[in-house]
UniProtKB/TrEMBL annotation:
Keywords: Cell projection, Cilium, Flagellum. Pfam families: FlaF. It comes from Rhodovulum sulfidophilum. This is Flagellar biosynthesis regulator FlaF.
Amino acid sequence: MAQSAYSAPNQNKTRSPRATEYAAFVRITSQIKQAHEAGRRAFPALAAALHKNRKLWRTLAIDVADKDNVLPAELRARIFYLYEFTDHHTDEVLAGRAKPTALIEINTAIMRGLAERERVS
């Protein structure tokens, strides 16, 4: 096992922070979509995906709340607002009062923005 872990060091590419964020959003959003489309029996999978999404958004909120964050203040405020919305909407989905569609749409919009910024950089 150790030999295979060290045998091909060039196989793992280093990702930019944006690419890492993009990959996390893709993975989690896909999990939310799949669980939602699978119906009621997949509620445990949906709850797990929503938990991951909430953790991702909480991480982003902590990052943009940091006084040393270099993003423009307006963008930081918008990201923090999205965190608050996703946190509240996740509660509504878990309680059965809402569908995860808004969370999927928000994540998809963030992915588009991350992909665009990665292309421009």
